[in-house]
Write a structure and sequence with these properties.
Elements: E1 2-7, H1 9-15, H2 24-38, E2 44-49, H3 52-61, H4 63-67, E3 71-74, H5 78-84, E4 89-92, H6 97-108, E5 113-117, H7 124-135, E6 143-146, H8 149-159, E7 171-173, E8 200-205, H9 217-229, E9 234-240, H10 247-257, E10 264-268, H11 272-281, E11 284-287, H12 298-305, E12 309-313, E13 329-331, E14 333-335, H13 340-343, H14 351-359, E15 362-364, H15 366-378, H16 380-394, H17 399-419, H18 432-435, E16 442-443, E17 449-452, H19 454-460, H20 478-487, E18 492-493, H21 494-500, H22 506-518, E19 522-524
Parallel strand pairs: 1-2, 1-4, 2-3, 4-5, 5-6, 6-7, 8-9, 8-11, 9-10, 11-12, 12-13, 14-16
Antiparallel strand pairs: 14-15, 17-18, 17-19
Helix pairs in contact: 6-7, 9-15, 12-16
C-alpha cells in the first residue's frame, strides 16, 4: 500500500512551532509521522511538499524520514511521480480534507482514498472547512477521522446544516496517540527550588491561554480550597507555553491576591528537561478544559504515561480517555443551554473571543473537584492504584499500538476506491449550544439550586474582587451580579431566582449565574 501525506505550508508551520510543548497539534503530527515512518509494514510512505524550502526543512529536521526510506516529492513533480508509483491513500494532517480532495482530483488524477484528521473545533474556520470539504465532493471511500466520539457528534450536528446539494464528509472515529515519554531517570527524591520536599504536588501542563486553551482561575480557586482543607502540605505547578496574552503575569497576580505565593509555581515556556522534572515531581495532573476547540487531550495521555493521577473536566474528548474512578477522575461540568447572546455576534468577531465567551459559560464543579483531590492527597492506596492503572492504560495509546488501526482503515478505503468508478473531478450560522451540547456532563436546568459560596460572601463584604476578562465585561453587569449574590444568601432554584430579577432577560441572568458559579461566588447545592 502506498500512503502519501500532503504537506502544504500550514502543516510545515506546525512542525516548526518550536519547543514540543507549545502546540499539541505539532506534537501529534510529528509523533504520528515518525511512528508511520518507522513502521516496518508492507506500505511505502511518501510526502508531497509545497516548496523546496519545506523539502529541505524536513530533510534536515526530521532525520527519521530519510533513515526509513520515506520519499519527499515537490508538488510540481507529484503527477509524474504517481504515474510510476500510484497512490492508494492520501492523508492530510488536519481538518482541511478539501486540500487533499483537490490534490487527488486535479493534481494526481487517481482514484485514491483521501483522509484527514480533526485537531481542533471552532466556529469561523470550521464553517469554511466544512463547506469547502463538501464542495469538493468527497466520495464514500474518503474520511475525516475524528479523534473522539464528541468530535463525531459535533461534526454530525454541523453537517446537518449543509444544503441538500452538498455531500457531507464521511466521518470515522480513531483516537490520536503519543510517543512513549522520555521519563526523567533519577534516584531519590526530586527537589525543585521553592517546593517543599514533603508537599503533594498538583500539575497543570499545557498552553497558558484562556482564549485558546483553558481559564486557569477556577483551578487556583480550587487549590486555595485544598490548601485550607488538606491534611498535608500542597503545591501547584502551572506550566507550559504562554499564548499571545500576558497570562502568566495575570495568573501570578491572582495567586498573590489569594495568598498562595509560596504554594504555587508558574513556569511558562519550560525546557524539555524541566518538563520531565515537573512531570516526575508531581503526583496528580489537573486538566480543567472549558474550551470548545479542545476535542481530545494529548496532555492527559502524557500525564497518564508518566503515572500521574489525572483529575479532568468531564468535557468533550477528555471523558473518553479516563475511566472515572479507575485510572483517573472526571469532574462534573455545567454549561448554558442557550447561547443566543453569543450566537448573534459570533460571525463578526474574532473566533478566539467567541471561544473565551463560551468558556466563561462553562463551570467546573469545584466542590466535586475538591472532594476528589482531597481523597488523592489523604488516601495513599487510592493514589497508587490510580497512578498504576493510568500508566498501564496509557500504553494503549502509544503510536505503535494505535497505528495498525489507521493502516487497517486505509487498506479498507483503498480497496473501496479501486473498486469504484471514476468520479468527476454557502454560509451557515451555528447555534453553539446545539452543536456543542455533548461537551458538558449536564446543561442549565431551571430546577438547579444555588447559594453563595464562602468566596461569594467575601465578595458581598467587599473582600473579593469581581474581575472580568477583556471582551467579557460587556456581557456582565456588576449591579445584577451583586443582586444575584444577595438573593442567594439562602439557597434558590433558578426559576425563583430569575423571577426576582425584574427587567432583566433570562439569557442575561443565565450568563451572570454561570459566571458566578464558574468563579466560585455561587455553588450548586
Amino acid at each position: 500500500m502506498h500512503i502519501s501525506l500532503l504537506f502544504y505550508s500550514d502543516t510545515i508551520a506546525f512542525l516548526q512551532a518550536g519547543p514540543r510543548q507549545i502546540l499539541g497539534r505539532a506534537i501529534a503530527n510529528n509523533d504520528f509521522l515518525e511512528a508511520l515512518a518507522k513502521n516496518k509494514g508492507s506500505h511505502h510512505l511518501s510526502l508531497f511538499v509545497s516548496s523546496d524550502a519545506e523539502l529541505q526543512y524536513l530533510s534536515e529536521n526530521c532525520p527519521y524520514l530519510k533513515n526509513n526510506g520515506v520519499t519527499l516529492v515537490p508538488f510540481c513533480k507529484a503527477r509524474d511521480y504517481v504515474q510510476k508509483k500510484p497512490v492508494d491513500v492520501l492523508h492530510v494532517l488536519d481538518n482541511e480534507v478539501f486540500k487533499g480532495l483537490y490534490f487527488r482530483d486535479h493534481v494526481l488524477k487517481q482514484n485514491c482514498a483521501v483522509t484527514g484528521i480533526t485537531h481542533t473545533l471552532g466556529h469561523d474556520a470550521w464553517l469554511k472547512w466544512m463547506h469547502m470539504n463538501a464542495l469538493h465532493r468527497p466520495q464514500s471511500f474518503d474520511r475525516l477521522i475524528c479523534t473522539s466520539p464528541t468530535a463525531i457528534s459535533v461534526l454530525e450536528c454541523m453537517q446537518e446544516s449543509l444544503p441538500a446539494a452538498l455531500t457531507a464528509m464521511p466521518l470515522e472515529e480513531l483516537p490520536l496517540g503519543i510517543s512513549k515519554p522520555d521519563v526523567l531517570q533519577t534516584q531519590g527524591p526530586i527537589n525543585i527550588t521553592g517546593i517543599d520536599p514533603e508537599a503533594f504536588v498538583f500539575l497543570y501542563f499545557g498552553r497558558l491561554s484562556p482564549r485558546s486553551k483553558v481559564d486557569l482561575r477556577p483551578m487556583i480557586f480550587l487549590f486555595k480550597r485544598l490548601v485550607q482543607a488538606a491534611p498535608k502540605k500542597l503545591h501547584l505547578i502551572l506550566a507550559g507555553a504562554r499564548g499571545n496574552e500576558d497570562y502568566p503575569q495575570e495568573l501570578a497576580r491572582i495567586v498573590s491576591e489569594e495568598g498562595l505565593d509560596q504554594q504555587v509555581t508558574i513556569a511558562p515556556d519550560v525546557s524539555d528537561h524541566d518538563k520531565k522534572v515537573v512531570f516526575a515531581r508531581a503526583q496528580s495532573f489537573l486538566a480543567f478544559s472549558d474550551n470548545t476547540q479542545e476535542t481530545f487531550g494529548l496532555s492527559i495521555l502524557e500525564a497518564k504515561a508518566h503515572g500521574l493521577a489525572v483529575v479532568a473536566a468531564n468535557w468533550n474528548g477528555y471523558r473518553n480517555l479516563i475511566k472515572d474512578g479507575e485510572d483517573g477522575f472526571l469532574i462534573n461540568t455545567l454549561a448554558g443551554e442557550g447561547q443566543d447572546i453569543i450566537n448573534r455576534v459570533a460571525p463578526v468577531q474574532l473566533d478566539l473571543l467567541n471561544q473565551l465567551l463560551l468558556s466563561q459559560q462553562v463551570v467546573i464543579d469545584l466542590k466535586h473537584a475538591e472532594e476528589i483531590c482531597l481523597k488523592l492527597v489523604s488516601d495513599a492506596s487510592c493514589l497508587q492504584s490510580v497512578q498504576d492503572k493510568a500508566k498501564e492504560d496509557a500504553q494503549n495509546f502509544y503510536w505503535p499500538a494505535l497505528l495498525p488501526r489507521y493502516l487497517s482503515l486505509w487498506e479498507q478505503l483503498s480497496q473501496e476506491a479501486k473498486q469504484s468508478a471514476k468520479h468527476e473531478a454557502a454560509n451557515v450560522h451555528l447555534d453553539f449550544s446545539k452543536v456543542f451540547q455533548s461537551y458538558p456532563s449536564q446543561t442549565f436546568d431551571p430546577n438547579l439550586q444555588v447559594q453563595t459560596s464562602a468566596r461569594g460572601d467575601l465578595a458581598l463584604a467587599g473582600k473579593a474582587n469581581l474581575e472580568y476578562y477583556p471582551g467579557v465585561e460587556a456581557y456582565l453587569d456588576t449591579k445584577i451580579i451583586v443582586g444575584l449574590l444577595k438573593s442567594c444568601a439562602h439557597k434558590k432554584n433558578m426559576t425563583a431566582l430569575f423571577k426576582e430579577q425584574v427587567g432583566v432577560s433570562e439569557e442575561d441572568l443565565r450568563f451572570q449565574v454561570l459566571w458566578l458559579l464558574k468563579n466560585d461566588f455561587l455553588e450548586l447545592v
